[in-house]
Specification:
alpha/beta; 7-stranded parallel β-sheet; 11 helices; 17% strand
Length: 340
Amino acid sequence: MSEPQQVVVLGASGFIGSAVVRALADTPGVRVRAVSRRPVPLPDRLAVRVEVVTADLTEPGALARAVAGADAVLPFTARIRGASGWRLSEDDTEAERVNVGLIRDLVAALADRPSRSVHRPPVVVFPGSNTQVGRVAVERIDGSEPDRPEGVYDRHKHAAESLLKEAAAAGLVRAVSLRLPPVYGPPAPTAEDRGVVSTMIRRALAGEPLTMWHDGTIRRDLLYVDDAARAFTAALAHADALNGRHCLIGTGRARPLGEVFRAVARAVSRCTGADPVPVVSVDPPAHADATDFRSLEVDPSVFETATGWRALTPLDEALHRTVTAVAATPPGSPAPAGRA
């Protein structure tokens, strides 16, 4: 019997990272090491399968120790600020250190260590963003478009992804970037989802109207967190075929946000028994940018063909699960994540 694959998840206490830990822990032939700045609580059935390491990866030597012996690394470490998370300032050097610098350190750590086999460099599966592409002339993208990232967050993602592609080209790692759309779902024990869907669920549970900065026709491809987690396990299983590439991940169908918000209002109404809250258009705030008013749909067929992965969770079912979990979460819990 071959030795189980050692997979290290960095930023394992974060919203997506914690979902990936759960998915990997249920994957045969895998040993999981979950690394984060905060302890990662796990149900008893998974705790025996996961090695939990608490570390600040910005400290000297911490990252190299965390990935020692790893066959694969999934880096979900991120520095984000504020309720919107991705709206970073140009002078946020700490965010650059975490979002880009740790990937640079990861490549160096994996390149410097003794390898189990010179022909099998370790795998890195990176969580990119579908907005890295920047401004495009079409609403549906497939990953072949030239990248012109605009915001600070997208430039960080693009720089980190580029470092991994360069390392893959040099034979130091086998790397693939999964460019994710907005991901939503139930809160993790250590991190809530701060995206648009869960934000609107919390507003509706509070009886507040759901506000849009447009007429509701702007479309987004929204992905349930369990489907996103499965994408990472699929990428690990097909790392050789995907090496050195980025792939778009999504449902393949972007929905008008007005339709999504009304579905949220109905889901919360079914949970609480109250009438659905209204969905209204309001003037955009000063911090809104051009990407807030552009529709974006992804074509995930390249990744689907390579791996057999599909987004499986219907919107209504995903909203029901998320609403139920958010409604059961005490106010102020879980702890908001600044750096996972």
